[in-house]
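Recall the central idea of this unit: under ordinary conditions, the amino acid sequence of a chain determines the structure it adopts. In this exercise we apply that idea directly, starting from the sequence alone.
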Amino acid sequence: MRIDILTVLPQLLTSPFETSILKRAQQKGIATIVVHDIRDYSTDKHKRVDDYQFGGGAGMVLQIEPIYRCIQELQSQRKYDEIIYVTPDGAQFNQKTANSLSLLQNIIIICGHYKGIDHRIREHMVTKELSIGDYVITGGELAAAVIADSVVRLLPDAMSDISSALNDSFQDNLLAPPVYTRPEVFNEWKVPEILLSGNTKEIEKWQLDQSLERTRLLRPDLLED
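Accordingly, the structure predicted from this sequence is:
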């Protein structure tokens, strides 16, 4: 899988892709993540990529031309399944969306900044708009990193044990059950006896019951879905 990320702040995306699962997935050739500096596609001699809004209003807007030129160059090299724009008014990103994106071959993620991007890019080039939550952050870089992480970890062989990802919260609209490790007793706090029993069938039943109860208490909306 290849993920191309368009941004005006590429340095923000250096660390997330050089550690842990994302790093190993790239080393194995499972995923390729390429960060593109939108300024490299500016025709302005000062590499400016933002301008004032037509109609007035506070805040600058990323210009259409550099983003368009970057996307055009990428599309000349390969076919993209989705061109994603991360924005607070996009569809809520969730595990179901991550699962769906993990089945694709090539995607582009556009990071907005300032007041966003020229809307014509959204109208004519973007195929999907996603939000990681009902709040505003400085730019789309952190959101792009969240999406990339969530998607890449689902790719075959990205994790040493894929069942770990399949048992995560939200995969089946349930929160994950509690987990424990050694020591069995700490400060007189004990691990539930059932987990020490070795009875796989009963342990799985306990885990399902715990998932249902935690979801009912903490996220009842998931059970409605």
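The longest strand covers residues 82-92.
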